[in-house]
Write a structure and sequence with these properties.
153 residues; 8 strands; 10% helix; globular
Amino acid sequence: LFSTNRLGVPNTRLRLRELVQRVEPKANDGAVINVARWDLAEDGTVFDASGTFSVKCDYTINQGARMNIDLRDHVLELARGSKVPQDVQGLVGMLHGAMPSELFDPNELAMDTTYLDGDVRIVRLTGDRLEGVRNVFIRSGSVEVDPTKKEII
């Protein structure tokens, strides 16, 4: 994911490992689910809590291809064997700061989507809060990203 939306200051106790957006269509409506995979070091040194944070939304399509988004629920799930965070509300606050706001709270936004190919899509947001913000999504598994590998292009 690449977003033109400016994010807040990173928190060293939270590691956001992955942001995924799933679209589940049903004719002219459906669901959009944004999932953040995270690790937390509550003591500041050991990442001993981990899980997912899902933002579940409903959508309807109008004006041909525009998806109007309505927030349905936020769901925090711990990974098997994870330590339970002492400050769950603080964890949600850190996730809010780490995620692009259009993925954390997409309520009352609309999305115009352009598919570049089967693996890459660009989403332009419309609405009072984030007019013109763009996100680029790459299909999971279509590109291998290895930050430790040095490639000469």
